[in-house]
What does this fold into?
Amino acid sequence: MQKLISSKTNYYLLVFSFLIAGLINAGNPERSKNGMVVSASPLASNVGIEILKKGGNAVDAAVAVGFALAVTYPTAGNIGGGGFMVIHLADGTNTTIDFRETAPYAAYETMYLDSLGNYNAQLSQTGWLSSGIPGTVYGLISTLEKYGSMKLADVIQPAIDLAENGFMLTYNMAESINKYHNDFIKYESSKKIFTNNGNKFKEGDSFVQKDLANTLKLIRDNGKEIFYNGIIAEKIVNESNKNGGIFTRKDFIDYKSLERKPVIGIYKGYEIISMGPPSSGGICLIEALNILENINFEKQQWHGSTHIHYLAEALKRVYADRSIHLGDSDFFNVPIEQLISKDYANKLFTGISDTATNSLALKAREFNQHESDQTTHYSVADKYGNAVSTTVTINSAYGNKIVVEGLGFLLNNEMDDFSAKPGAQNQYGLIGSMANSIQPKKRMLSSMTPTIVLKEGRPFMVIGSPGGSTIITQVLQTVQNVIDFNMNIYDAIAAPRIHHQGLPNQIDYEPFSISDDTKSILTGKGHIFGKELSLGRMEGIVIDIDNKIFYGATDPRDYGKAIGF
Ligand code: DON
It folds into this structure.
């Protein structure tokens, strides 16, 4: 009886929340025949679609969107940070580009600990010591050179124009910048750009970024060398020296983005192509899907007690593995094959009973999770059969809030993604171990999960999200919503989500995501409910392969745009 009430209530909650979401956004996916670009910035999506209209491929468009986001979405779009790109080419090639930041040569394991050995989060999250060596310029340009069809000058020009001529601030962007006003006024270089002559911005103000336009022009005319072994590197290192940072010219000269094999799994016949180390995203996503494959969700109510119970139990196991086994695989032996194997997942599944496992028994550690800030994902698919899934970040919203004087871009605070001390939590409440300790030139572990799902070898779904530690769980649920619960991409993204990362041992959840009846069943099984919060900002595409129709959806939790043509 209880279950019946739960199912009905869930159904009404689902419909209700979709209606709410429908009021905020269009309600249906964008539909097109020749390609689709979805990003958190309507201006950047437009840049991408114009490239596709000119005959560019998905890589050309993705690189153009990457540069445009650095101008129009500075909370996360960047040239002062890094990211990951997952690519499927029409010839069947699956590959990934790792342009994650690296730790400077002068970085060392205990650099964020005080004399008593206590972790000082201020140091890893703010100031010049919090930044890794930016990888975005290297990553975007080398990917364009290898897989694009257009010239750098053509794909970067729209970003230059947007920076040079400016654009009108929307209410949301003005508010987003103003939220960090007190941080920006601390640095003259940041105050110059991210305040209106020292005051807060208003909706409708013109946002012009001349210094950034000049930096992008230097890159346009000289390629990535100028960023890594030219005037741009020189200026960044000089500023770092002046302000107590540890960057050296050699850090920049030696930086390279890396092409890496994707991690690949199969979920109910669909191929999951995702990002491997130094991101934990792909491994954790596939491990969780492998565990959940043991359940026939067609017989289950979406967000009913069985669904949530198994989601939470799978996630507890996945995040326990993350904290021990995952780090930069160039520095630490990550057991990738084992973690994504069906055998291992089946063993974990057999350990799940009808009652909730205490996460502390899986990995003993307690901490609080902080609110996540910003990162951004964008998805591109073209009419040739190529697809690109990219997530980029400067970690916190606007990174460490420091604009490099004269260059017009913000620096990341990605060093906080390292495990500063075994067991110490970072800003997402994540713990780590030796696998993710700080070492010179090492890449800090990420949760970013840019993913492409293939059906019969062709792109079916392109998906990803920001959200720090919650990225993995958001991507997982959106994939499930499409594959297991037959939702269209808009509904799959709009549907309320939950999050469990093992520790703290609690299910966090969005409004309307779990009915009170279902909650009480789950509480009876021993689950603990944590915070009600907003989770993830997905930007996704689903392709009807047979009819060659692209469906795109931006997350109604944010203000992006899906544009097709
Ligand atoms: O790489 C990571 O996992 C984090 N630096 C991502 C940060 C993030 O998603 C913040 N956005 N909400």
User: Anything to note?
Assistant: The two ends are 49 Å apart (CA to CA). Residues 2-24 form the longest helix (23 residues). The chain is about 40% helix and 15% strand.
